[in-house]
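Example protein
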Amino acid sequence: MAECATPETMQIMTSFATNLPYAVHVIVCLATVVLSIIAVRMLLYRSIFHDSTRILFFVSLFYANLHELMQIYNEVTAFYRSMIYADAPCKILVTQESCRLENNLIVSSIAGMVFVECALTMDRIIATYSLKKSVTMSSSSGFVLALAAIIGSILVPFITFYGDPYTGYVQNCMLMPAQSKNRANTLLFCYTIINIVNIALNSVIIYINKRQDRGTRFKLKLRYQARETLISTLAVCTITTAQFIALAIYSGGILLMRTNQDHFTLFAYFAIIPWVYAVPYAAISLPTLIIVCVSITGKDRRRAIEVVQNTKETQEGRMKSLNEMWNNSY
């Protein structure tokens, strides 16, 4: 027999205050898909990144869009049920069992986003180390890091929901099974720590790359490699830091809400928590910042080439302008 929604649950599912953030999420998710198409084209034809970094960006875009598509599907169907069954409390809820696939895909996509961002941080560490040792960075590192992230994203939902009977009813399939609450809280705590550590690591990587850039001032070949590594590192770290901040808000905020749920009324809890769910904003930041970073860097390089082609100067002036270009680029 179907479980009937309580009057308070009916209010939550049909209220404008609780449905508004879901409408915003759907718009953000659709924008992510469109921007991702543009970002993929840029990575293919106008990329400023090493092959290993591009591989990781492609995998990250896959997970971001997987999450966005699952969220669009779940929230549109939930809104549809709230409209059709607004006067039918015994039909408006869905079984947890019917949400098994959605739960696993959503958790896997978020895990994939977190792990690929970690892989991008590792990729920058490898690039920095390769420059220090004057060795060529191989694209195989991107494949290995991507494979590790993919394996991790598959294991996380398996571990989180292992043995869960998927019993009961929920408002929509974005909600995790109640029986896995403790493991889900542990996962959120791990994500929070991972995100904070990676934000710190990205700051350290940028600092080291800037030092390497200054240390190769009179070694032309190494100077060029150091500048290219610094440009890529600044772009990658900007992208990953934005995602880590959004994912840290998601994991820390949701964990805080879940562990203090008793301090909220049921309506207030479900009205606030969608705004704390920042995964869609982490997802949309990825293609947006890829587009912005590639565009800005491409314009700076074209401007530098035009200066070289259109300027006639003495040898002393030429050396001065080259030095300024090195120091001021990107």
